[in-house]
User: Fold these one by one.
Assistant:
Number 1:
Amino acid sequence: MAKNNTLDFEKPIYELESKIEEMRQYEGDLDIKDEISKLESKVFSLKKSIFDNLTRWQRVQLARHPERPYTLDYINMMTTDFIELHGDRHYGDDKAIVGGLAKLDGQKVMIIGHQKGRDTKSNVYRNFGMPNPEGYRKALRLMKLAEKFNIPVITLLDTPGAFPGLEAEERGQAEAIAKNLFEMSKLRVPIIIVIIGEGASGGALGIGVGDRILMLENTWYSVISPESCSSILWRSWDYKEQAAEALKLTAPDLLEQKIIDRIIPEPLGGAHKNYNQIADTLKSILLEELADLMKIKPDKLVQNRLEKFGAMGVFEE
Amino acid sequence: MVWFKRSKHNISPDSKKLDMPDGQWIKCESCSEIIHNKQLELNHWVCLKCNYHFRIGSKEYINLLFDKGTFRETDKKMKSGDPLKFEDTKKYNERINSTIKKSDLMDAVKTGTGKIKNQKVSFACMDFKFIGGSMGSVVGEKIARAIDRGYKEKIPVIVISQSGGARMMEGAFSLMQMAKTSARLARLAEAKLPFISVMTDPTTGGVTASYSMLGDINIAEPNALIGFAGPRVIKQTIGKDLPKGFQRSEFLQEKGFLDFIVDRKDLRDKIALLIEYFADEK
Ligand SMILES: [Zn+2]
């Protein structure tokens, strides 16, 4: 892992790891095997204690980790025969949302997700994973296509938000998201939602209505980002940690709030620490959930979905 | 286009106090005309000189739209929970309680049924003065139930929006209200029952990106701010001033997202006529 991607709270781990690295260079000359293995087990328990006690803000940082697997990584690792499908047939092809037909252990799926870039150039190309209206309209086109040919839909959510730009407003960002919520709620094939990174507000929900909502362990999903929440409610950008705590936006929080159905465990240290492991875990869970959902008749599926979202909310009367 | 002038004032919830005693004179925020309170009320809180639409609340819209004495409020007592025990500079439950006291409203939407020119409708109207008209669980649930009432009684649904978006203090619960209300509208549409969405100043964020934009007919009052992202955020993103009239009703109609813009004095007639068009003749 590149040192410049080290998060603050990970520093003690890297300090120990680099110490071990140093010692290894003298391993041939000195008898320090025991020392090294002692340190290694110390690293492990340190990692464990750090990652078992992450604050909400730390999880937000992990969700945004620049080395985290993105939608196309998961597609490459989990599926075969992927055919990417482009464009909304109205305006253009949004690079911040990708999608297409793929096979998951032979099971046909329509897989759609937000796509971030990995460096400056690809981030500009992907608009940092912030879709314009045509991204949502492309996603809807693919979902309707899937419905037509009775193919289940999987969406992977990872966006800092729908793009707040001038043209996005002109082309109806709000209408595009609203339309997706409306259409997804009555789509007659199974839909599985997976939050793989950042689930920021309407920009995430715009491809986030489905029958199962799964969250990777170190992701966040809420109505607003901690930074924006801080700037609005505290009138300063400095309260993002407090805002993250207040928003209760992590996977365990959302499971407790009964908004999501399941948490997908990540490798120790985060999904980026072991691409194959997280892809395998996700794939097997998706297959398991799909098998369940595909037994349900379309009418019932749609009715269940309506009730699922209908039950979300807390009020007194 | 005189109504593009007042761009800075329309976000503050306190900027347009209408609960003034009789005999008060009010200054139009757009053209500075001094108008008598009573005269303004008779003109549905629209400036007689420049047609500026003052912001009004659910109580005024109910009086404006419904046949006298026909409106019955529903879910009157529904009150916000505090599922996250949210606290910023203030505790959310304290914020709720003090807003209830101050505004004489239970939350940012009022719902009910009533007759418009003798045609029964299910109705919801938002109030910006309740925490910026923000949508949390109560707003989502009451709107969903209003839609269901339309579905069950086979009557049209009308929603007047006035909101800064989803309510932060209920986190993901607020977000999910967008999906909840949209799903109910999808069921209403399958049953071929009309939904008329009226957008007033302002309608932004998660409210615009759910039920507000999903009308069979989308209507707005003149010069209402309507959009997904707020103008301030967009300005920050693009690093430029926004063009005049951007995200105003006239702009949205021009871009194809509104069926028409309606002066407040014509709102009742227009809605009644639409309902008549969509009525099942069988
Ligand atoms: Zn005036």
Note: The pocket of zinc ion is lined by residues B 28, 30-31, 33, 47, 49-50, 52 (CB under 6 Å).
Number 2:
Amino acid sequence: MSPSRILQQVLASAGLADLGDRAVRGARLARDELLRVVSCGSPLAAAALADAAREHASGAVVLHPWTLRVRAPGVPFAAEDATRVSHAADALGGIASSEAQIVGALPPDLPLGLALEMVRTVKVARPDLTLRAFSARRIDAIAAAEGSDARHVLGELRRAGLDTLDWEPGEGSDLRTIAVHRLAFDQGYETAVPVGYAKGGVDAAFVDRLLAVRDAAEHAGRVLSVVPLPDRSEGASPLDGTAGTEDLLACALARLALGHCVKHVTVDAHVTGHKLAALLFSAGADDVVGAQTASRWAPPSGDGPRPLNPDRMRRVVIEARRSPELRDALFRTCTASAG
Amino acid sequence: MSDATAIDDILDLAVAGGRLTPEQGLALLEGADLLALGAAAHAVRTRLHPERVVTYIVDRNVNYSNVCDSYCRFCSFYAAPGAKEGYVLSRAALARKIEETQALGGNQILMQGGTHPEWDVAWYAELIAFCKSFGVHVHALSSPEIQKIAAVSGISVRETIERLRAAGLDSIPGGGAEILTDYARDAISPLKCTADEWLEVHREAHALGMRTTATMMFGHRERAVDRIEHLDRLRALQDDALAAAGGRDAGFTAFICWLFQPTHALKADEPAGGAEYLRTLAVARLYLQNVRNFQSSWVTMGPKVGQAALWFGCNDMGSTMIEENVVSSAGVSYRMLSPEIHAVIRAAGFVPQERNFYYEPVEARFLDSPERLREVVGADPKNLALPAEAFDQVPASVAARR
Ligand code: SF4
């Protein structure tokens, strides 16, 4: 649907009127066009373009997983030990969820063996759930600790049952993240790719990282989503963190850069907070993570906004005039499973 | 005519300065696209304030007492009369808070408490006179408190305000409005003053030439029609104030709306989030064009949504909230001082300007170091729990004085 009359006026005064029709058709924008959006000076104009493109891609639907967060320290990771595995199954079972995620402070030199054990334990305990774990940065760290390479680590984790990669704040601000995800595609993964930015960093370099993801998506076709990712969570001092208007622009650029190549733009409400996330559903986002199901091994993580329970997340989506649909870690719509 | 065309027409009308009917307001609240509302609200804001400036004030929210017999269902702040949690600030504590505020560059206190069953106008006049003796602007006592004081004292609302004003009361805050319909008030605050009584206080204050502020707290038990009726009643009252003032600015200086925080006291049926806040804010800006200034409620929504609100009709970032007890009792505790509020306004694309209560520009005074902050705050640092980095950005004029 075309933007309303007032939004067409906003686009015209921001010098973006010529992009409106293309956004409505979901066409991706070229680099110079994206840079015009960056410098247009109107967050509303950028959002209006992205919202039209989102509507073309997803209609009113906003996807969201119910995430069973498994906190790494404390889980008895020992898949070969039947007693401990059944302990894990007891602890993780019975909680209606649509994906599992391994979270928590892991040692910087986490050995690959332990990472594999974690994956196997969770997959044995909850075979019904797809598993999201380990950021690209973590994959590199495991490879460094092993003296091997990211390709090898990704392959081993894949064979252990890992379904897709995770991300972490501060990640995705260089091309290495995208390179690791490309290696993951070679190993058969589909992933949501984070594209990070810091305060004042929604600029040409950010656009170039988005275009690198677009290039990867065109070649491999395995990019599930792009995650525009501020480097600090909502609770950071405003002197350090990104502005809400920067987050809005970053989200809009992600949608406009990817066009038909990538269907989804994900908001990480753990980082942005759910209040801002609700606005980003009008700036190109059609997917949100941040609904956490309960687990005694998964208390809310330290800093940042408190996770929402799944019911509240649904209501945040509905209140933003969107239709929530549950998905798994691979963006397939599903129903919640209690294992 | 399609729904979309009808909405477009209403938005055009509002942007051109036309007066919305309640039906049109409701149509926007329920059916308009969020970004279109934002764009229209920003156009109205730009017509009223063409300059790209966002103002803010350095002040302190002082809650002189939490003793209250109104028992609002949403409130986590009050203590019943006689309860051991009840407090009344001593004069020494009040003095310290005011002096700290002045040392932090503020020249206003926003002072509110509960409705006390025994304190009369003489008690409050003394309280106000004490605060005024420091030379600050005293923005104090919301409608429910003034109605209660009048009832306890056995005098009219007009006389109550006159006596408080004579003691030093400068202006009246819009607290306690929540939603100005009987339906909503019966649901959440049945013992507090009625909608008519809330409006009466402001009408009397305006008639005396005083300025006041208007508020709306939404997202609890009210319906969309209640929000519109609330705006309609405020608009009518402001019409009267402006008509009586014969062309001068009068009545409400500003409108501030915020979301009910369903954390502790009262569970909302539907939690209102950022989208609903911005939607309602934008509709309010379009509906209430006779009130010049709109404040962003970053205290409840956080700085990020607070920044977005500057593109949805707001021209003011409100108060630095040196101290805030009522909202933080509900589990929400965003807080900023001048350097942060400057950074937030600039990052959203605007130029920050410190102001006084009347929205007149004043020269910004930053704290010049974290040490200075500690010195000012003394033994009560939790009131000003700011990171040391907050004071890295200081204007050259201040740096030169170091
Ligand atoms: S909101 Fe105000 S009037 Fe109501 S109980 Fe709390 S302090 Fe009293």
Note: The CA atoms of residues 182 and 216 of chain A lie 7 Å apart.
